[in-house]
Design brief:
single chain; alpha/beta; six-stranded parallel sheet; 37% helix
C-alpha cells in the first residue's frame, strides 16, 4: 500500500495571539495542510539566523504572518523595536518564502482617517509608528509573486491569553476600576475573529493575490462598539462614557479608518458580517 502524500506545510506566526490562534485551529481542522503554529517560544522572529535555519529545514509552502508589535503606544515608545518586529522580520520571511505563498496581516490604521471608506488603492498616510511600520511591511511583501496582504480592523473574540482582543482589553480595564471614554466620532469596521479567519482562508483557497480589505460590513463608532461589548458583558455598562475626539489631547487619532470591502465581497460572493445584536 502506498503511503498518503504529505500535506503541504503551513506556518502561522503569532499563533499565541487572537487571529493567529484561531487561524491555526481552523486551518488545522480542514485537513488541507500540515499546520505549524508558531509562538515566540518556538520561533524568535527577532533572531534572523534561527528563522532562516528553521525555514530552510522545514520548507513551508505557505506562510501566514500574523505576528506583529501591534499596540500603538508600545510602538511609539520603542520605534526601533517596532521596525525590527513589524518590518525587518516580515521582509525576511517574505524573502525566505519566495517560492511559496505569503500572507501578511495589515491594518486599517495605515490611513489617516480623514475620509473613511478606504478602497485598497487609497494612499496610506499613517499617524503613528505602528501604521508606518505596517506600510513598510506591506512594501516589503509586495514584490513577492504570490503575496496576499489582508488589511483588517478591530477583531472581536477570545484570545489564549485573554488580553489581545479589543473586547478583552475593555473588560480588563473595567475590572481594574478604570473608566473608559469612548469616542462617538471615531469609526472602524469591527468584526469577529471567526469571520476574519474564514474570509482569509477562502482567499487562500481561491489563490487570491494582492491586497484585500477584510472588515465588517457595519461602520461603527468607538462608542457603538463599547455599547455592543456592554450588551454581552453588563458589568461594563457603568464604566463606559461617550466622548468626542474634539476633547482628545493625546497623540493624534484617525477619526474614520472604515474600509471599503467591495473587492473581497465580490470574490467571496458575500459581505463579511459586522457586529450585531
Amino acid at each position: 500500500m502506498n503511503a498518503a502524500p504529505a500535506l503541504p506545510m503551513l506556518w502561522i506566526t503569532g499563533a499565541g495571539g487572537l487571529i493567529g490562534h484561531h487561524f491555526a485551529q481552523v486551518a488545522g481542522q480542514m485537513g488541507r495542510w500540515q499546520v505549524i503554529p508558531l509562538q515566540r517560544a518556538e520561533l524568535d522572529l527577532l533572531d534572523p539566523a534561527s528563522v532562516a535555519a528553521r525555514f530552510r529545514s522545514e520548507r513551508p509552502e505557505v506562510v501566514v504572518h500574523c505576528a506583529a508589535m501591534s499596540k500603538t503606544p508600545a510602538c511609539q515608545a520603542n520605534p526601533a523595536l517596532a521596525r525590527r518586529t513589524n518590518v525587518d522580520a516580515t521582509a525576511l520571511l517574505a524573502e525566505l518564502a519566495a517560492e511559496g505563498r505569503f500572507a501578511l496581516f495589515s491594518t486599517d490604521l495605515i490611513f489617516d482617517g480623514r475620509r473613511g471608506n478606504y478602497p485598497e488603492n487609497a494612499t496610506p498616510n499613517p499617524l503613528h509608528v505602528y501604521g508606518e511600520t505596517k506600510v513598510s511591511a506591506e512594501a516589503a511583501v509586495r514584490p513577492h509573486p504570490r503575496h496576499l496582504i489582508v488589511r483588517t480592523s478591530l477583531n472581536y473574540g477570545i484570545s489564549p491569553t485573554g488580553d489581545r482582543a479589543f473586547n478583552e482589553e475593555m473588560l480588563l480595564a473595567a475590572r481594574a476600576g478604570r473608566t473608559l471614554p469612548l469616542f462617538t466620532d471615531e469609526f472602524r469596521n469591527p468584526l469577529s475573529v471567526e469571520s476574519t479567519v474564514a474570509a482569509v482562508l477562502e482567499l487562500l483557497l481561491a489563490g487570491a493575490t494582492g491586497t484585500y480589505h477584510v472588515a465588517g460590513n457595519r461602520r461603527m463608532s468607538r462608542w457603538e462598539i463599547g455599547e455592543f461589548v456592554a450588551r454581552q458583558h453588563p458589568e461594563l455598562r457603568e464604566r463606559i462614557i461617550p466622548e468626542s475626539l474634539r476633547s482628545h489631547q493625546g497623540p493624534p487619532r484617525a477619526p474614520d479608518t472604515s474600509l471599503d470591502c467591495t473587492k473581497v465581497a465580490r470574490l467571496l460572493g458575500r459581505t463579511i458580517p459586522g457586529l450585531t445584536a
